[in-house]
User: Which sequence fits this backbone?
């Protein structure tokens, strides 16, 4: 919780933030910036910092004020040291306890709340990832504040931009809560520089509450291809591929020729052509690569919600009226079973 003195100072500074110019206004803005204090919740796996979670630091930099990073898990020292090198972070709060290794929200949320109370942060920021989506609503509920989810922009310390209705409308929302619990869309906030910082590291509070759930196992898809969420190029296949055998035979060589990650529509995933972790869209991953090349995908709004911010969208579909062509920068009308292998062959010859 923010201290009473801090809250009253914030209220005073905000009352000064009327749209006017001159020395008082400038002084007030910098006073407000000094009072802002963000906690970026960073992700780790097997003792390695997850660099894609550094978008939370970038969002905190946009807010201004001091930035603390939070990490937890077993043998956390190495992760904390990695985080301490990230540009912009002033302090790393680390909790060394294997209970938090898998980021189970049932035990991680009370842990985070204790540390938020101790640090009196004004903004708590995490990625809108499976981890963040699971954790942050619990944290918000425990603090009795409202979460601001999946933001793509920051207007000021209490006003945020977020897509709604599968990205068909953009809402500007204002939060009057003392502590803002925020998840950020990874494609809107690039990861902060991993080098250049020299933050201090301190031990966080560990409530050591009895975990109510137990981690049994995980079944991860292993791939040498680039990670779908962060890849610069993505090739994606849809129901038009007709079977898993054809999906693998047609799309994987194209991905290899381009050095791209593989994605899929929900119809392709539901039909068993591609793994669930490859789904792009409203209920899958949100990607914004330099190139999104899709074949046999119609362009349903739920799919577009996950890829429409890609820099160049290229589509292959045999139906010239398929909605995907309305947002594609480059379109090829034709049978993907001919066109994709032809394209792959040409790329391999280059
Ligand atoms: C709540 C909700 C959430 C959803 N979330 C997602 C999501 O996250 N991601 C997602 O993708 N969908 C999602 N969907 C499903 C979405 O509405 C569509 O059903 C789905 O995207 C369709 O996938 P598709 O384009 O592969 O299949 P289809 O719509 O069936 O399109 C197949 C396309 O392949 C083309 N085609 C067929 N054969 C060939 C060929 N030989 N050569 C070239 N082209 C060919 C066809 O012309 C057609 O355009 C969601 C739906 C709901 C209701």
Assistant:
């Amino acid at each position: 919780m923010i201290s009473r003195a801090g809250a009253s100072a914030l209220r005073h500074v905000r009352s000064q933030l009327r749209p006017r110019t001159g020395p008082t206004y400038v002084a007030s803005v910098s006073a407000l910036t000094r009072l802002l204090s963000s906690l970026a919740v960073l992700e780790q796996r097997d003792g390695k910092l997850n660099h894609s979670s550094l978008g939370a630091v970038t969002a905190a930099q946009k807010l201004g004020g001091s930035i603390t990073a939070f990490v937890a898990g077993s043998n956390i020292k190495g992760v904390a040291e990695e985080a301490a090198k990230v540009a912009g972070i002033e302090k790393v709060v680390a909790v060394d306890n294997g209970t938090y290794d898998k980021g189970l929200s049932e035990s991680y949320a009370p842990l985070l709340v204790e540390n938020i109370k101790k640090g009196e942060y004004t903004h708590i920021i995490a990625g809108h990832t499976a981890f963040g989506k699971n954790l942050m609503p619990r944290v918000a509920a425990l603090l009795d504040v409202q979460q601001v989810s999946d933001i793509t922009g920051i207007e000021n310390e209490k006003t945020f931009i977020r897509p709604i209705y599968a990205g068909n409308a953009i809402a500007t929302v204002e939060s009057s809560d003392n502590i803002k619990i925020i998840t950020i869309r990874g494609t809107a906030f690039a990861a902060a520089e991993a080098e250049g910082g020299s933050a201090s590291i301190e031990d966080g509070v560990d409530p050591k509450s009895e975990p109510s759930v137990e981690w049994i196992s995980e079944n991860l898809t292993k791939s040498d291809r680039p990670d779908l969420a962060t890849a610069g190029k993505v090739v994606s296949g849809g129901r038009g591929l007709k079977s898993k055998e054809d999906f693998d035979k047609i799309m994987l060589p194209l991905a290899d020729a381009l050095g791209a990650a593989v994605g899929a529509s929900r119809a392709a995933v539901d039909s068993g052509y591609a793994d669930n972790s490859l789904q792009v869209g409203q209920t899958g991953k949100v990607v914004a690569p330099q190139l999104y090349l899709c074949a046999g995908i119609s362009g349903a709004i739920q799919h577009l919600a996950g890829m429409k911010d890609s820099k160049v969208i290229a589509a292959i579909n045999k139906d010239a009226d398929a909605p995907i062509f309305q947002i594609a920068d480059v379109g090829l009308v034709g049978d993907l079973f001919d066109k994709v292998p032809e394209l792959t062959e040409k790329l391999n010859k280059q």
